[in-house]
Amino acid sequence: MKKDEIINSFGLSTMICALCCSSFYGVFSSYVLHESLNSSIISILIGFIFSLIISKLILKLFNTNTNLSYSKKIKKIYGKFSIIIIILSILCSLFGYILLTYRLTTFLSNQYLVETPKYIILLLIILTTYYISSKGIETTIRVSTICFYISTIIFLFDFFSLVNQINFQNYLPIINVSIKKIIITAFIFSLYFSITTTQIYAIKKDQISDKEKFNKYFYIMITISFIIIFLSTSTIIGVSGISIINLYDYPDYSTLKRIKLFSFLDSIENISIMSWIFYIINASSMFLLFIFNTLKNTFNLNNTKSNVFNTIIVLIAFSIPNFIFLKNNYNESYEYIYLPLIIELIVLLIVIFSLIKNRLKN
Question: Who's near 150: CB < 8 A, 6+ residues apart?
Answer without folding.
Answer: 274, 275, 278
